[in-house]
C-alpha cells in the first residue's frame, strides 16, 4: 500500500533511568503513579480495620494500639499525602478525559471539577456522620 | 536588552561525531527574531553546514519542531527574547533518532499515521455522483479541534511512553483516529477501534498529559486518548456480556 521507505542511518539517543526528575510535570506524573501503592495500602488497612472491628473489643483495641506506633504513623502520614496527590491529580484529569454535554453545550471543565469536590465533601460528611454521630 | 544571545545547538555530523555534541554560537538578539531566525543566521553567517528542517515560518507546516531548553517547540513560533539573557539550548526533537544535527528520522511517525485509517470510511456505495454529504456546523464542530493537527510531532517528543516504548502508536495518531470517528460522514470507528484497542494502542498511554500541553494547535491528543479508552472499555464489556450475534 505505502511506498517503499529508505532507512537512513541515524543516532539513537538513550533515555536515562532518571528521565523523570528533571521536569516538574514528569516528576508529578511519576509521583501520581507511585501514589497507587498507597491507595492499595489504605484499602488493605481499611480491610484490616474492618476485620478488627468484627473480631471483637480486644482485637479492636489491639488495632488501635498498633495504629499509634511511630512506624505506622509515619507510613500513614506519608500515605495520606500521596492519597491527596492522587485525588487532586485525578480530579484534575477528569474533565480532560470526559466530554459531558448538557442541552447540546459542553459542560466546562471547571464545573466538572467543582462537582467532584462537592461530591467528595458530601460523601466525607456522610461518612463522618456515620462513624462519629450515628 | 543585550544585542546578542548565546545559542547552544546540538550538532551531529555522522562523519565527524560519534554522538551528538553541543556547539556554542552567538546570534543577534532582536525582538522579532525566533529561534528559527537564530538558526538561519548561524547557517547564513557562521556555518553553512548546520542542518535543520523548516518551511513556512508561520506555524502551519509543522516541520520546524525541536527541543528548545528541553521543551518541544515550533522554533518558528518561539522567540529568542523569551530566553534572554540566554543561552538558548536547541536540540533535535526528543524521542526520535537523529539523522544529522537537528534533523530527526520521522519514518516511524509516517508509518504510524495510516495505521489508524485516517480517511472517511463508508458502509454504503454512495459516490460523488449521488451528491455531497451534508454536514451541519454542529457536526463540524464535533471533530474540528482534532483536525487542526499539523503533524509537527511535538506531542511524540513530549511523551515519555513513546520514548520508552516506540511501539506505542502515539498521541497525534490517536487524535487523528478521533477526528474521523467524530465525523458525521464516517462509519469506520469499529475498524479503528480494532487497531487502537491493542496494547500499543490507547492502553499504552498512562495519561501524562504532556502531549496536550505542548501541542501548538490545541488539538488535545490526551483528551482524545482518554475518550478512546472509554470507548475501548465499553466495547470490551459488550464483548464480554453479549453473545456474538448481538454485538455492535
Ligand atoms: S497533535 Fe499537536 S503536537 Fe501532536 S503532531 Fe498534531 S499539532 Fe503537533
Ligand atoms: S516552519 Fe512551518 S511550522 Fe515552523
From TrEMBL, chain A:
The chain crosses the membrane at residues 34-55, 67-93, 113-132. InterPro entries: Fumarate_red_C, SQR/QFR_C/D. One of its GO terms (cellular component) is membrane. Keywords: Cell membrane, Membrane, Transmembrane, Transmembrane helix. Pfam families: Fumarate_red_C. This is Fumarate reductase subunit C. It comes from the Bacteria. It comes from Nocardioides islandensis.
From TrEMBL, chain B:
One of its GO terms (biological process) is tricarboxylic acid cycle. GO terms for molecular function: 2 iron, 2 sulfur cluster binding; 3 iron, 4 sulfur cluster binding; 4 iron, 4 sulfur cluster binding; electron transfer activity; metal ion binding; succinate dehydrogenase (quinone) activity. NCBIfam families: dhsB, PRK05950.1, PRK12385.1. This is Fumarate reductase iron-sulfur subunit. It catalyses: a menaquinone + succinate = a menaquinol + fumarate. Belongs to the succinate dehydrogenase/fumarate reductase iron-sulfur protein family. Its EC number is 1.3.5.1. PROSITE patterns: 2FE2S_FER_1 (PS00197), 2FE2S_FER_2 (PS51085), 4FE4S_FER_1 (PS00198), 4FE4S_FER_2 (PS51379). Keywords: 2Fe-2S, 3Fe-4S, 4Fe-4S, Iron, Iron-sulfur, Metal-binding, Oxidoreductase, Tricarboxylic acid cycle. Pfam families: Fer2_3 (PF13085), Fer4_8 (PF13183).
Amino acid at each position: 500500500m505505502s511506498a517503499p521507505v529508505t532507512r537512513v542511518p541515524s543516532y539513537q539517543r538513550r533515555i536515562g533511568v532518571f528521565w523523570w526528575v528533571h521536569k516538574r510535570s514528569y516528576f508529578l506524573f511519576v509521583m501520581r503513579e507511585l501514589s497507587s501503592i498507597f491507595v492499595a495500602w489504605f484499602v488493605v488497612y481499611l480491610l484490616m480495620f474492618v476485620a478488627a472491628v468484627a473480631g471483637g473489643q480486644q482485637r479492636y483495641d489491639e488495632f488501635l494500639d498498633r495504629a499509634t506506633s511511630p512506624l505506622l504513623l509515619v507510613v500513614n502520614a506519608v500515605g495520606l499525602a500521596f492519597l491527596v496527590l492522587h485525588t487532586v491529580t485525578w480530579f484534575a484529569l477528569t474533565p480532560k478525559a470526559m466530554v459531558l454535554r448538557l442541552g447540546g453545550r459542553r459542560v466546562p471543565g471547571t464545573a466538572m471539577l467543582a462537582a467532584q469536590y462537592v461530591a467528595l465533601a458530601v460523601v466525607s460528611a456522610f461518612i463522618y456522620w456515620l462513624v462519629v454521630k450515628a | 536588552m543585550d544585542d546578542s544571545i548565546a545559542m547552544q545547538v546540538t550538532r551531529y555530523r555522522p562523519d565527524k561525531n560519534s554522538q551528538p555534541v553541543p556547539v556554542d554560537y552567538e546570534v543577534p538578539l532582536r525582538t522579532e527574531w525566533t529561534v528559527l531566525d537564530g538558526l538561519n543566521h548561524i547557517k547564513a553567517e557562521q556555518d553553512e553546514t548546520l542542518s535543520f528542517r523548516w518551511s513556512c515560518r508561520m506555524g502551519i507546516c509543522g516541520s520546524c519542531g525541536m527541543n528548545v531548553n528541553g521543551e518541544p517547540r515550533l522554533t518558528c513560533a518561539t522567540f529568542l527574547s523569551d530566553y534572554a539573557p540566554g543561552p538558548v539550548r536547541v536540540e533535535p526533537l526528543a524521542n526520535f533518532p537523529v539523522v544529522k544535527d537537528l534533523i530527526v528520522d520521522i519514518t516511524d511517525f509516517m508509518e504510524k499515521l495510516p495505521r489508524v485509517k485516517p480517511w472517511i470510511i463508508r458502509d454504503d456505495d454512495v459516490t460523488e455522483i449521488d451528491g455531497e454529504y451534508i454536514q451541519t456546523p454542529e457536526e463540524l464542530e464535533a471533530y474540528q479541534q482534532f483536525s487542526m493537527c499539523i503533524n509537527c510531532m511535538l506531542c511524540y517528543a513530549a511523551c515519555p511512553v513513546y520514548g520508552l516504548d516506540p511501539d506505542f502508536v502515539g498521541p497525534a495518531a490517536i487524535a487523528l483516529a478521533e477526528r474521523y470517528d467524530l465525523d458525521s460522514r464516517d462509519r469506520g470507528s469499529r475498524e479503528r477501534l480494532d487497531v487502537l484497542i491493542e496494547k500499543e494502542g490507547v492502553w499504552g498511554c498512562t495519561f501524562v498529559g504532556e502531549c496536550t500541553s505542548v501541542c501548538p494547535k490545541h488539538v488535545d491528543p490526551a483528551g482524545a486518548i482518554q475518550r478512546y479508552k472509554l470507548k475501548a472499555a465499553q466495547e470490551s464489556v459488550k464483548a464480554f456480556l453479549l453473545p456474538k450475534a448481538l454485538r455492535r
